[in-house]
Design a protein that fits this description.
- This protein is 39% helix and 16% strand.
- The protein has 294 residues and is α/β, with parallel strands linked by helices.
- It has one domain: TIM Barrel (Alpha-Beta Barrel).
- Strands 3-4-5-8-9-10-11 form a seven-stranded parallel beta sheet. Strands 1-2 form a two-stranded antiparallel sheet. Strands 6-7 form a two-stranded antiparallel ribbon.
- Strand 6 (93-95) and strand 7 form a beta hairpin.
- The termini are far apart.
- 48% of the residues are buried.
Amino acid sequence: MATQNLGGRYTFPGTELTVHRMGYGAMQLAGPHVFGPPKDRAECIRVLHRAIEAGVDHIDTSDFYGPHVTNQIIKEALHPYPKHLLIVSKIGATRGPKGEWNQDHSRETLISGVHDNLRNLGLDAIDIVNVRGTGLDKANDKFDIRPSMETAAQLQQQGLIKHIGVSNVNAKQIADAQAIAPVVCVQNMYNLANRADDALIDDLNKQGIPYVPFFPLGGFSPLQSGKLDEVARSLDATPMQVALAWLLHRSPNILLIPGTSSTGHLEENLKAAELELSDEALQKLDSIQDEAKK
């Protein structure tokens, strides 16, 4: 298993928080459809232990994964937490009795979401909380993020949140959020085949703000491409490893949080940080977005 480098390091702006660029996303620690308990809780705990042993120091989570389940597993596995570990959560949604995803940006839900995270993670304050916008594959341009940011900023002033990020947002919403409080990271959907945020990533890089792509492997519809397969064969790697390596090459401000509930899959993901991509390979991979548009 990869235990060194893990893609290099990055420091969140205006903070002393420095992490390896290859992190871990905890969403898949919950049951099917991110709802209820996992089939193998012991394996989930092993995944977390192995991630920390390998040098992962950035875990992305939310209390609406499960709900509550993922955070409870993280606490069981890792609390008291290593001093170097950064935990990032998010607010702005709830789950229905059958696992429905309900977007909810009311002040009450945002506040209760922070307290749920604190309780189930066993924390007094959360390192970073992402204020979630609406939409999934792209931001909802009609969403006004300012009321949610104002609530998050108040929670920050109370000492419950150390830093604030944003998720599912466009450039204007980021600027609106920054007018209320510093934004230390942005989390949107982005991968080889979904590159609508190319310009945004470059702009954030100039600002020194990390961009954290969710669904870096395609999410519920895994990436499939003949060119991706070809590059993977040439490197004796899996297509998903190459997709992750491409993201690390795409921009120095990209931080990865691939998720899994399998130790074997975890090892594969982490090894992606060791892959070197030639100019020819990068050219082939960059052309995949054109295939996706057809």
